[in-house]
Design brief:
The structure is a homodimer of 214-residue chains. Chain A is mainly alpha-helical and 214 residues long. In chain A, helix 4 packs antiparallel against helix 5. Chain A binds a DNA duplex (30 and 30 nucleotides) through helix 1 and helix 3. Chains A, B: GO terms for molecular function: DNA-binding transcription factor activity; transcription cis-regulatory region binding.
Chain lengths: 214, 214
DNA sequence: CGATAATTTGACCGCTTGGTAAAACATTAC
DNA sequence: GTAATGTTTTACCAAGCGGTCAAATTATCG
């Protein structure tokens, strides 16, 4: 019998690990470009260089692949926020959070778009994760920000909307990449826009949040 | 013969106008929730309360419906930016631009998501519009902002990234609505989050862009 | 009214889709 | 080796898809 599919008890062969990785890599391409419904198993199998039944030997359904990817992405997506340090200096914490998120948009645009696709279409597969772990983490960090505001280190502001605005401005460069490129024009062939964006966003958030002493 | 489809020379019957409107309304629902590939003609026909062939009598293809919608949305989507007035006071212009965009996110979330879906998936249907009319308008307004900065009315900053950041922060409340709700929790049953968002964003951008005299 | 044009329907088509069955092939364990 | 297990392929569904067709129905106009 052959009932390995996702490893029954233990991940056995190295071939399994390899193939699963190849599938997930291909699936990231396809899902991030077409969304869940727009992606087809054939496309993914093709991109992974294997036949459809072969692919379905490792992941029983299209949803299984998607779940795997989403879980992984959700974890790394939250990393920068986790690193947010209550003990640190507010200004440099916010600055490095922005930098980190921008780097993710630059280096992992597919991951960002996969996530965006999912949320945009109502997050049918990850509602629980959003309401659970995500909310908890944000609640925790919002409290940190609020404390900073209370102690006068930054201006008083709604911490949730602050977090939202950092998310949205940074991810914009991954999710709306085509639009950004179209507007900026050809001259922006390189990755210079990320440096410019970093400069602008740091200025905006640092100055916008600086405690007003007057 | 019956070759009206989208009105040969002139829009004839009132019934045509009505049905087309119903179809577009239904299609907006379906496309904005599932993206182009994820949406099916049957779904749209169902939502519009008519049979598939009947729908196809008014729009020959799925793409035709989509194009119609996109064109319409792109126009209204740009309205607020068009209203951006070079003669006005920078602070109040930016403030009202943010307000307008937030109102659009609140009142026309489907339109925003339709657009987001399209851009997210590489804008296959509207690349030309992005590189043409959109870029031109943004270029024009960027010059306005740059002039403001030169004359010291606001701080020096990259006008393109400023526009991007206003787009992203405001649309976030439409496009990532599920996530916003999940994080803010049940208590945010009403539309209060839009007021809070407006307060936060106005503060952020106004203070962040205020000319520094020191 | 009757004729003509506009609208709607049901039946259908060819293709794609997610997924299966079973057998062929490869690998490992003894 | 050979037997057991793991992997891949070929052939195949049944359902869903975008779209067509011709006939039936309804509205419009003289």
């Amino acid at each position: 019998m052959a009932i390995p599919r996702a490893a029954k008890t233990q991940r056995r062969t190295r071939i399994q690990e390899e193939k699963e990785e190849r599938i997930l890599e291909a699936a990231l391409d396809v899902f991030s470009q077409n969304g869940f419904r727009g992606a087809t198993i054939d496309q993914i199998a093709d991109a992974a260089g294997m036949s459809k039944p072969n692919l379905l030997y490792y992941f029983r359904t299209k949803e299984a692949i998607h779940r795997h990817l989403i879980d992984r992405v959700l974890f790394t997506w939250l990393e920068p926020l986790r690193a947010f340090d209550a003990e640190g200096n507010p200004e440099s914490e916010i600055r490095s959070y922005i930098r980190r998120k921008l780097e993710m948009a630059r280096d992992f645009p597919r991951e960002s778009r996969l996530f965006a696709n999912e949320v945009l279409q109502g997050a049918p597969h990850i509602e629980d994760e959003l309401k659970g772990p995500l909310k908890e983490l944000v609640d925790e960090k919002a409290e940190v920000i609020r404390a900073w505001a209370r102690s006068g280190k930054i201006t008083k502001c709604d911490p949730y909307h602050l977090i939202f605005s950092i998310w949205s401005t940074t991810q914009h460069y991954a999710d709306f990449d085509v639009q950004v490129r179209a507007v900026l024009g050809q001259d922006y062939a390189g990755e210079g826009r990320f440096e410019d964006a970093a400069r602008f966003l740091e200025q905006l958030f640092i100055d916008g949040l600086r405690a007003r002493n007057a």
